[in-house]
């Protein structure tokens, strides 16, 4: 099932809002924007429309804006943004802010429906950056031990977890793999990253063995003819990324390890790479990043640890 259901996103919206959002989606598709990006952008605009329809107050006249996005003002945006912070979080409000920036930019530059964007002087919400701790090898060892065995689910789950651990891939990248994406001749995987940025990443012998064992078991299962790499336990269906997310959490709990999710292995990969003095440019290629800020962001959780290790090695303050 596709992520983006335009009818669901626009359900109940006034005709003018509905028409603009459908035209915008057509423009985004023509620009080859990923489905996830289109979904987040369109959802932000639809949520603004619903907010304006449901939250009229004496000091915030919303009648016209609730019917037509070209009537939206800075005050409307700031009220919506404040409401998002109060009811969701600052990080969610920031995501909506970015989506609305793109919507009103499209209305102004592409459609020429407005002369100025109402986002022009709206401040981005300040967010507190939460440090995501890396998952230690001992914890990963416990999670993998919870998968030990020769049953189909045990073989499948070990192969999935080893790919995250060994390659630092995103949840969706491993979750959406097809059989053709795995090459056991070169021990490599073809990831389809954000923004249609593909890359090929090598994996080690333990991961290769786990994937090979899974593929042998998969060949005997109902649904083996499907192109998707990961199969669900029953029904001959694919195992979707959300199913993998649930599986990893369950395996972590059974192993006695709290807070296990795929992204922690991504942080771990970046941490171990930097500890080994790996090149940041090479790390960007392996992780599918285009922004040079990302290596710093993903290394933030462990930066203090690496600094302490360096301090201890240098022996500063121990000369007297």
Percent strand: under 5%
Spatial shape: globular
Helical run tally: 14
- Tally of strands: 3
Overall pLDDT, averaged? 91
> Main sheet?
3 strands, antiparallel
**What is the alpha-carbon Rg in Å?**
24 Å
Q: What string gives the helices and strands in order?
A: HHHHHHHHHEEEHHHHH
Question: Which descriptors apply to this entry?
Answer:
Tyrosine_recombinase_XerCD, Tyrosine-type recombinase/integrase, 320 residues, 3 strands, 57% helix, DNA-binding, globular, mainly alpha, DNA recombination, DNA integration, 4% strand
What does this structure look like?
It comes from Streptomyces endocoffeicus. Belongs to the 'phage' integrase family. This is Tyrosine-type recombinase/integrase. A hairpin with a 4-residue loop joins strand 1 and strand 2. It contains 14 helices and three strands. A three-stranded antiparallel beta sheet has the order 1-2-3, with no helix packed on it. With 320 residues, it is mainly α. The relative contact order is 0.08.
Secondary structure elements and pairings:
Blueprint: H1 6-10, H2 15-30, H3 35-54, H4 63-67, H5 74-87, H6 90-110, H7 137-145, H8 152-167, H9 171-175, E1 182-183, E2 188-192, E3 198-202, H10 205-218, H11 241-254, H12 262-275, H13 280-287, H14 293-314
Antiparallel strand pairs: 1-2, 2-3
Helix pairs in contact: 2-3, 3-6, 5-6, 8-10, 8-12, 12-14
